[in-house]
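Input chain follows. Return structure tokens only.
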Amino acid sequence: MSALEIKHLLGLRGVSANDIRAILDEAAGFKKVLERKVKTLPTLRGTTVVNLFFENSTRTRISFELAEKRLSADIVNFATSSSSVQKGETLLDTLKNIEAMKIDVVVVRHKGTGVPKFLSEHTDAVIVNAGDGSHEHPTQALLDIFTIESNLGNLSGKTVTIVGDIKHSRVARSNAWGLNALGANVRFCGPPTLMPRNPKMLPAEIFCDVAKAVDGADAVIALRLQKERMDDSLLPSIREYRNFYGITRKILEHAKKNVLIMHPGPINRGVELDSDIADGENSVILEQVTNGVAVRMSVLYLLSAGRAGE
């Protein structure tokens, strides 16, 4: 094991292929540990991790908590609803008060873009981004990449199509940067109103026709429609979206026969994915969830090792 070049995981933009590879390789070892009867390691004993979630989450929060417990870290869960934030405390004051309790790692999820970077500039603790606004969600992309590689091997030359609400998707952005760094071809597909303002800034080919976007694809990642972030004018109706961009068996006739079907969850069944596709033989959605724990164990372990080496 060697420490990463990065000191925090704020996103995958600019992260080297070597660092991504180190995380994935370490995750493979942790996945084997998770398959054992005794799944706990003493690796982070004595390390205190704070889960600072200002935004609702189920899968990501539980996955991080489980990863921390498997590594024997001491865990503090921050609940916004019962915190001093409700009394007007600033984000920086919250961080400084938590830091005064001698914590080592902060896992943060926030609706504001750039919050993890802001925190990293004001603390000696390691910051791990668990999703910030419409910016990035690096650990989700890493587990997606790990899942694709586990099933298809080397990513170089592989084509991954990401379909849906690209505009609001931090998952799409992190995947684009991470997959591109490892030599994969990334395609974005969705309604023009749900595309980024400057799509050429991202390393992905843009499609509006979903059949063309999945043509020859090795993996298809369907994204959740983030209705909580949308203006009603962005989408005429859910039915229209499903008719034009829903992933169905007919659409997948254009993809490779063994195409992987993926989704970061939660799924709006019958909208982004038909149930027979989500539960079908090509689906690796539950495998993504399993892999998420191993990948997050790897991230926490490697970043903590880097801190210890300072």
